[in-house]
């Protein structure tokens, strides 16, 4: 059965369209199970009815014509119960529904299993037999369930392909086809899709020896030079659109192409006797494998950059050329995996949106998109990319959703959002230099999370009062070795100078487990509970001491440095870290540097730390909650895993209760506590955190103006009452709805993106 299943999946995957895929399924399953009938009924989203889409054994004239209501007949019963139904005598069942046009009155035995993809019932797969004495056995039932589970994704993809092409299951015109991903850059864009394909495919490069090593070395040198010239050209074209600090991202690419980095390793492989293309493949795949193992998604996305460079180098080695693309006036760039260099190919003023199958909000593309103000959606895993070329698209960077072939009503709906956002941004510019103070005088400093100078520039333009979290991993990621003390010092000085005299909180190196560096690989069975954060740097004090020394020297004359320790789970880690920090402080002072002892704090992101707040606070100067990791650990949910992402919720009662406890315990011993994470950047979440007593909120720069506007327009007393109300609720979805309703009633509906389905919102719009 396993070989049959494998062959079936391969055949279906190669089908040209949905109808051919379904025909293959019913034909092969009928033959494999030795049944007289195999049929597929798909649930049409538009009519909410099951339609007979393919059959082997029933009358073919019934295909496309026979349909059942959502809970009608045995097919509807299978779908509504979401489990198999196995009957020896189907006509005697009270839910049996007879359709004379199918000719199924001859068949008495019935086995139906649901076809489910990501919790959505797509349809029902049915087999039938003439003999009433035959009952499909457990093995046959298990086989059909396995077939259904294996093919659900293929059917969903085929459905989407047909829908984007403009046809529904019934053959009628399909409009407003939507796909869900993750937000990469906020905003709404309306334009036409331009699909960009990678320059070359490293995965298919064969392994073979080099016939002439010197020739292969020369070919590779020429390819590196050509790619460097391409990147410099792209950077030059973007010069007028980006700040110098943002253009520095392309310097990262060029550093990767220096002799000491990727090309050096490829040359070594070539000298070992591997031809240039094979050597490039081996080195790039090794880099990518290490990057993709990492837990920190900001760092994980560096694999995209390495892969992009590999493809471009391979393209020149193969003497391949990208086809000339025509970019419409309003271009939405679409790719399996967008890279920064692809953005520079679009003529100035024509790029309005970005769509990427792979990636997250931490990729270089997402960072650049936010800097350029281009709405972006990432992680659209089920989308048939090839079908989007030339299609009109709506990119909703707020909700992480795209729409293909939109109707006039949908286009008007989102154009209104675009106009409102433009007007809102202009209105919020006036708040940049104003303090974040409630109407009853409560002051809440708003800080930002940064990783690159790109983030710093945008943060300053939005009125940030300091850095609540600087990810020091960045200098470690752009090297093929640990950066020296002097190199780290230069990076840290840039951040400290940009915000002086306001505080800059630098998190010590947070690697380990599944966040290993390419030159410091770590492989573990359970990386989320493994060797990471402070555990790694305390085990390697030579890394920790150099980093702290670089931080302290970088702060000379500025004295706005704060040091933060990640992934703290017990008191001994804090005490050992403090011992090393004090040691470095005295050593640096003895070297003649005039520095102040920085404030030292810990990150609260492990549940164990929630119950040791008082003990931790007694030993440090401040606390900062890493709400994203804390939420994931409390709920045991990886929010980047599409199978469980819906379970991740910042408004979960357990999360809110933990946050309340942290703030209360910290203040009980007189220590300030801040928070850095997505909840702080949500206007409703920011109000709850302020009501809990958090002393500072750190967020993405793009979120800062709206959060400031909301806080300046309400009293803390109002926020405290809202907090008391939601703490009585037991559902994260109800809590979120309650908070948003309060914001709408207070006049902040314009800051909230539609949380209901677009069709429902449109219905309300029409009704009004």
Automatic annotation (TrEMBL):
One of its GO terms (cellular component) is cytoplasm. One of its GO terms (molecular function) is phosphoenolpyruvate-protein phosphotransferase activity. SMART domains: GAF. Pfam families: GAF, PEP-utilisers_N, PEP-utilizers, PEP-utilizers_C. Keywords: Cytoplasm, Kinase, Magnesium, Metal-binding, Phosphotransferase system, Sugar transport, Transferase, Transport. Residues 17-165 form the GAF domain. Its EC number is 2.7.3.9. It catalyses: L-histidyl-[protein] + phosphoenolpyruvate = N(pros)-phospho-L-histidyl-[protein] + pyruvate. One of its GO terms (biological process) is phosphoenolpyruvate-dependent sugar phosphotransferase system. Its cofactor is Mg(2+). PROSITE patterns: PEP_ENZYMES_2. It is found in: Cytoplasm. It is an enzyme of class 2 (transferase). Belongs to the PEP-utilizing enzyme family. This is phosphoenolpyruvate--protein phosphotransferase. It comes from Marinobacter antarcticus.
């Amino acid at each position: 059965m396993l070989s049959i299943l494998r062959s079936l999946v391969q055949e279906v995957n190669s089908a040209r369209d949905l109808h051919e895929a379904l025909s293959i399924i019913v034909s092969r399953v009928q033959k494999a199970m030795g049944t007289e009938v195999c049929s597929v009924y798909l649930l049409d989203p538009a009519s909410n009815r099951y339609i007979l889409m393919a059959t082997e054994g029933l009358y073919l004239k019934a295909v496309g014509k026979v349909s059942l209501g959502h809970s009608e007949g045995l097919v509807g019963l299978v779908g509504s119960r979401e489990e198999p139904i196995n009957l020896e005598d189907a006509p005697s069942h009270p839910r049996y529904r007879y359709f004379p046009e199918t000719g199924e009155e001859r068949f008495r035995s019935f086995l139906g299993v649901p076809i489910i993809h990501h919790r959505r019932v797509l349809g029902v797969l049915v087999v039938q037999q003439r003999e009433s004495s035959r009952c499909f056995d457990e093995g046959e039932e298990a086989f059909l369930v396995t077939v259904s589970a294996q093919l659900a994704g293929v059917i969903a993809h085929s459905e989407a392909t047909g829908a984007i092409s403009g046809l529904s299951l019934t053959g009628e015109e399909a409009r407003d086809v939507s796909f869900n991903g993750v937000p990469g850059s906020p905003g709404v864009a309306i334009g036409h899709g331009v699909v960009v394909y990678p320059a070359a495919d490293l995965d298919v490069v064969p392994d073979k020896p080099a016939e002439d090593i010197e020739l292969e070395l020369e070919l590779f040198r020429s390819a590196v030079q050509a790619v460097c010239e391409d990147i410099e050209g792209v950077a030059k074209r973007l010069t007028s659109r980006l700040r110098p600090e943002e253009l520095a991202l392309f310097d990262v690419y060029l550093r990767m192409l220096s002799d000491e980095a990727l090309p050096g390793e490829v040359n070594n492989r070539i000298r070992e006797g591997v031809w240039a293309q094979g050597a490039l493949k081996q080195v790039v795949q090794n880099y990518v494998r290490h990057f993709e193992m990492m837990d920190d998604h900001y760092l994980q996305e560096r694999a995209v950059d390495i892969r992009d460079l590999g493809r471009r180098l391979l393209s020149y080695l193969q003497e391949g050329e990208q086809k000339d693309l025509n970019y419409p006036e309003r271009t939405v760039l679409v790719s399996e995996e967008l890279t920064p260099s692809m953005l520079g190919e679009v003529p100035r003023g024509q790029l309005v949106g970005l769509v990427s199958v792979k990636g997250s909000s931490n990729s270089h593309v997402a960072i650049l998109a936010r800097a350029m103000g281009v709405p972006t959606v990432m992680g659209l895993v089920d989308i048939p990319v090839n079908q989007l070329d030339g299609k009109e698209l709506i990119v909703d960077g707020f909700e992480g959703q795209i729409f293909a072939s939109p109707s006039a009503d949908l286009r008007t709906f989102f154009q209104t959002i675009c106009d409102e956002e433009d007007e809102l941004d202009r209105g919020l510019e006036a708040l940049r230099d104003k303090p974040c103070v409630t109407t009853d005088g409560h002051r809440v400093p708003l800080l930002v999370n940064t990783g690159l100078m790109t983030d710093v520039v945008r943060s300053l333009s939005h009125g940030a009062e300091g850095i609540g979290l600087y990810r020091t991993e960045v200098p470690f990621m752009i090297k093929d070795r640990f950066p020296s003390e002097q190199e780290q010092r230069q990076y840290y000085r840039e951040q400290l100078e940009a915000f002086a005299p306001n505080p800059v909180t630098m998190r010590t190196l947070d690697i380990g487990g599944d966040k290993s560096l390419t030159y410091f690989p770590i492989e573990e069975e359970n990386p989320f509970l493994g060797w990471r954060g402070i555990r790694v740097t305390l085990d390697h004090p030579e890394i920790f001491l150099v980093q702290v020394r670089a931080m302290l020297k970088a702060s000379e004359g500025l004295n706005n440095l704060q040091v933060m320790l990640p992934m703290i789970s017990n008191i001994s880690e804090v005490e050992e870290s403090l011992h090393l920090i004090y040691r470095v402080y005295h050593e640096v002072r003895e070297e003649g540097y005039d520095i102040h002892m920085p404030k030292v704090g810990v990150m609260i992101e492990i549940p164990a730390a929630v119950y040791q707040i008082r003990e931790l606070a007694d030993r440090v100067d401040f606390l900062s909650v890493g709400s994203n990791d804390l939420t994931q650990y409390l709920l045991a949910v990886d929010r980047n895993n599409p199978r469980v992402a819906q379970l991740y919720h910042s408004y979960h009662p357990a999360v809110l209760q933990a946050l309340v406890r942290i703030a209360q315990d910290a203040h009980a011993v007189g220590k300030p506590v801040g928070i850095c994470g997505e909840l702080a950047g949500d206007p409703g979440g920011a109000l709850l955190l302020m009501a809990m007593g958090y002393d500072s909120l750190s967020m993405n720069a793009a979120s800062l103006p709206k959060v400031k506007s909301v806080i300046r327009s309400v009293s803390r007393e109002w926020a405290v009452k809202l907090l008391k109300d939601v703490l009585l609720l037991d559902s994260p979805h109800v809590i979120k709805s309650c908070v948003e309703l309060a914001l709408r009633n207070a006049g902040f509906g314009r800051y909230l993106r539609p949380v209901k389905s677009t069709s429902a919102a449109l219905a309300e719009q029409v009704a009004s």
